[in-house]
């Protein structure tokens, strides 16, 4: 998958990253947190990839903290998040 290349080719202005619980289907789990990343006119696949990586470095620790402190849980029956 070449998500950054696809975003650039599509001409979108914003991309980002998502941290979610894992399901059998790709990208199907309940979303814990997201970070948006602007796409600039002169972006390359490499420059965009670096900014998305920086966003991931913010999102993953935030998601882990939410789960570890039980501020968010996954209801196994419904597959939905429960926030506290």
Automatic annotation (TrEMBL):
Listed GO MF terms: phosphoribosylglycinamide formyltransferase activity
Gene3D superfamilies: Formyl transferase, N-terminal domain (3.40.50.170)
PROSITE patterns: GART
Enzyme Commission number, as recorded: 2.1.2.2
Location of the Formyl transferase N-terminal domain: 2-64
Pathway the protein acts in: Purine metabolism; IMP biosynthesis via de novo pathway; N(2)-formyl-N(1)-(5-phospho-D-ribosyl)glycinamide from N(1)-(5-phospho-D-ribosyl)glycinamide (10-formyl THF route): step 1/1
Any one GO biological process: 'de novo' IMP biosynthetic process
UniProt GO cellular component terms: cytoplasm
Pfam families listed in its UniProt record: Formyl_trans_N
Keyword Transferase carried by entry: yes
Key words, A-Z: Purine biosynthesis, Transferase
Catalysed reactions, as listed in the record: N(1)-(5-phospho-beta-D-ribosyl)glycinamide + (6R)-10-formyltetrahydrofolate = N(2)-formyl-N(1)-(5-phospho-beta-D-ribosyl)glycinamide + (6S)-5,6,7,8-tetrahydrofolate + H(+)
Organism: Diaphorina citri
The protein's name in its UniProt record: phosphoribosylglycinamide formyltransferase 1
């Amino acid at each position: 998958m070449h998500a950054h290349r696809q975003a650039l080719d599509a001409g979108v202005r914003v991309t980002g990253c998502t941290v979610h619980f894992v399901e059998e289907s790709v990208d199907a789990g309940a979303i814990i947190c997201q970070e948006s990343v602007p796409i600039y006119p002169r972006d390359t696949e490499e420059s965009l990839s670096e900014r998305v990586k920086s966003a991931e470095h913010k999102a993953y620790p935030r998601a882990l903290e939410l789960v570890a402190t039980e501020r968010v849980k996954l209801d196994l029956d419904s597959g939905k998040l429960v926030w506290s």
